[in-house]
UniProtKB/TrEMBL annotation:
It is a multi-pass membrane protein. The keyword Nucleotidyltransferase does not apply. The keyword Transmembrane applies. It comes from Pseudothauera rhizosphaerae. Keywords: Bacterial flagellum, Cell membrane, Cell projection, Cilium, Flagellum, Membrane, Transmembrane, Transmembrane helix. This is Flagellar biosynthetic protein FliQ. NCBIfam families: fliQ (TIGR01402). Role in flagellar biosynthesis. Its main location: membrane. It comes from the Bacteria. It holds the Pfam family Bac_export_3. The chain crosses the membrane at residues 16-39, 51-70. Belongs to the FliQ/MopD/SpaQ family.
């Protein structure tokens, strides 16, 4: 296995990890921003007020985007397992 192949495989793994984590992180970030604006406007400083909506939004995002995320991950794993004979030989 050449160093170029290892770097390419690592790059693909990082790309897939970013694609899989992006929807959940973006949903949490947008929710946190909206809750922060609400807290600043009403001067409510309750920590659980920001935690519970983030968890709910991330769960809903996971349910909605779950099939797409699973497809991306299984496609990557399938390509990885199919390329094993080429990497060894």
């Amino acid at each position: 296995m050449t160093p170029t192949a290892v770097i390419d495989l690592g790059r693909q793994a990082v790309e897939v990890a970013l694609m899989i984590s992006a929807p959940l992180l973006l949903a949490a970030m947008v929710t946190g921003l909206l809750i922060s604006i609400f807290q600043a406007a009403t001067q409510i400083n309750e920590m659980t007020l920001s935690f519970v909506p983030k968890v709910v939004v991330m769960f809903v995002t996971l349910v909605v985007a779950g099939p797409w995320l699973l497809t991306k991950l299984t496609d990557f794993m399938r390509r990885l397992f199919e390329s094993i004979p080429g990497m060894i030989g």
